[in-house]
Design brief:
Layout: E1 17-21, H1 27-36, E2 42-46, H2 58-74, E3 79-82, H3 85-98, E4 103-104, H4 110-116, E5 121-126, H5 128-132, H6 134-143, E6 148-153, H7 157-163, H8 169-184, E7 189-192, H9 201-208, E8 213-215, H10 218-231, E9 244-248, H11 251-261, E10 268-270
Parallel strand pairs: 1-2, 1-3, 2-9, 3-4, 5-6, 5-7, 7-8, 9-10
The chain binds D-glutamic acid (DGL).
D-glutamic acid binds next to helix 3.
Length: 273
């Protein structure tokens, strides 16, 4: 099926931007987006009831992202940010091939980490699906240069963030399990390749030491989003009350953590798909 070409002239600049993740990790990207684009409205989808995505089959992730993107389009969004490395690794190409609005993704920041590493040894922490994806393998092949890349799949960590447990005994035990070998390998840059992990930054630094730089691309993604809107002339010029609407699967059960992570999250609706 041929999809209609994207026509920026038909886009309403006052339309919101859609943001999606399997859960609360994408809030780390939403925060950067709101700083970069303070006049925009956002619609944020968190698929908490079906998280984690990072251990699910690729076909499942593609289909779930497609359903959520269709829902966002029905909400009238002017572009979509995949605030999820797993979704970008597995579904971005197929979504872009079948939807005509701009879709911005997020990828582990291997390139800047390798370029800035002095020890030429970097770590990447991400979900199993991201680490095993063809897209990630190609990223490492293209941008690691002389650096040795220690790629670590870290199942269980996103669930800690979803529970709001950023430094409890269970979280710290898991972090030690994944990070101790990286510390021993002498990495000087650690790429946070899952949008949930910035919420664990303090705990990670307490294990890795403050000489290890944590790199996450939330701000870079926000800057790319701004550029795309500028190029298409679809940036919003004024907004008296910029808003964020939240759609959450399992909203009742999961909203407690949202309230801890996003002060003043007033507008929360059930994501029914
Ligand atoms: N926040 C996610 C990412 O950036 C996905 C976590 C998950 O659902 O496993 O990959």
């Amino acid at each position: 099926m041929t999809i209609p070409a994207f026509n920026p002239l038909l886009v309403d600049p006052t339309a919101p931007i859609g943001v999606l993740d399997s859960g609360w990790g994408g809030l780390s990207v939403l925060k950067a987006l709101r700083q970069e684009l303070p006049l925009e409205d956002f619609v944020y989808c968190a698929d908490c009831a079906r998280a984690p995505w990072g251990d699910k089959p690729s076909t499942w992730i593609v289909e779930r992202c497609r359903q959520i993107c269709r829902m966002l389009v029905a909400q009238g969004v002017k572009s979509i940010v995949l605030a999820c490395n797993t979704a970008t690794a597995e579904a971005a190409d197929s979504l872009r091939a079948t939807m005509s609005l701009p879709i911005i993704g997020i990828e582990p920041a291997v390139k800047p980490a390798a370029a800035r590493s002095k020890t030429l040894s970097i770590g990447v922490l991400a979900t199993t699906r991201t680490i095993q994806s063809a897209r990630y393998c190609s990223l490492v092949a293209r941008f690691a240069n002389d650096a040795v890349v220690h790629s670590v799949a870290a199942p269980g960590l996103m669930e800690c963030v979803e529970r709001g447990d950023f430094d409890g005994p269970e979280t710290m035990a898991l972090l030690h399990h994944y990070l101790d070998p990286l510390r021993e390998a002498g990495v000087d840059k650690l790429v946070l390749g899952c949008t949930h992990y910035p919420f664990l930054a303090d705990a990670i630094t307490s294990i890795m030491g403050d000489r290890v730089e944590l790199i996450e691309p939330g701000h870079a993604v926000a800057a790319v989003t701004r550029r795309r809107l500028e190029q298409n002339n679809t940036l919003r010029a004024a907004n008296a009350a910029p808003s964020v609407r939240f759609f959450v699967s399992g909203a009742r059960e999961h909203s407690g953590v949202l309230n801890r992570l996003w002060a003043g999250a007033a507008c929360v609706e059930e994501l029914v798909l």
